[in-house]
Amino acid sequence: MKSFSIIEEVLPKAYWSALRERFLDDDLPWYYSEEISVKAGTANPFTGNPEIIGSCGFSHPLLVKDHFASPHWEAVKPLLYFMAEKSNYSKLQRSFDVLRAKANLQTQVNGSTPDNFNMPHIDPVHLQLKATNWIFLHYLVDADGDTFIFNETAAGGCPSKLTIRERVTPRANTGILFRDNIFHASSNPIRSRRRVNLNFNLIAG
Fold it and tell me: By C-alpha distance, which of 103, 174, 101, 93 is closest to 135?
């Protein structure tokens, strides 16, 4: 299994549309974060990347294993079985465990350009478990505001400069699956009003 892959048309259209409407509903609670990717006030260690731009954002927690489950979780969970089947990764197809799941929403930010990205990071789940697992991002709407995947990983420590491996433009019902030890970053939409995705941390069987 490659450390990074793009999965198109993850869900049947009717199921994707139902999830999209669920997460764009005016009554869904979103929770504000001063920084979308890291804890507010975190110093930027990537001094060689002037493209980094801070950004607030919103999230809706769906699941924290053994601690919390949103009322929306059961409607979302089947998505992962469709993803696993399309991943062609036999270990993931056999079984998986979800450590954390959430929805993310980002809006435009003043001064952002297509070359800017938010603070690169490694998800806390990887650092807590000291093991390499998987991240799956599923885009609910078409948007600009690429996801940046970098060449560098946690195994090499924290470099002063990151180099871009892939840029993925959000396309509705498309997902990306990658190892959770890879530095990655979101970016803000410029033309689109919002960027909405589901984010999962997984252990493959």
Answer: 101
**Residue 65 to residue 141: CA distance in whole angstroms:** 27
Q: How many CB atoms lie within 10 A of CB 121?
A: 18
pTM of the model: 0.94
| Percentages of the chain per state (helix, strand, coil), in multiples of 5 | 20, 35, 45
The answer to whether the Cα torsion of 168, 174, 178, 181 is positive or negative is positive
Query: Please, which residues have CB within 8 angstroms of residue 69's CB and are 6 or more apart in sequence?
Result: 62, 63
Per-chain mean pLDDT for the chain: 93
Please give the structure tokens belonging to residue 13.
């259209």
Q: By the 8 A CB rule, do 200 and 64 touch?
A: no
Q: Which two tokens stand for residue 101?
A: 């799941």
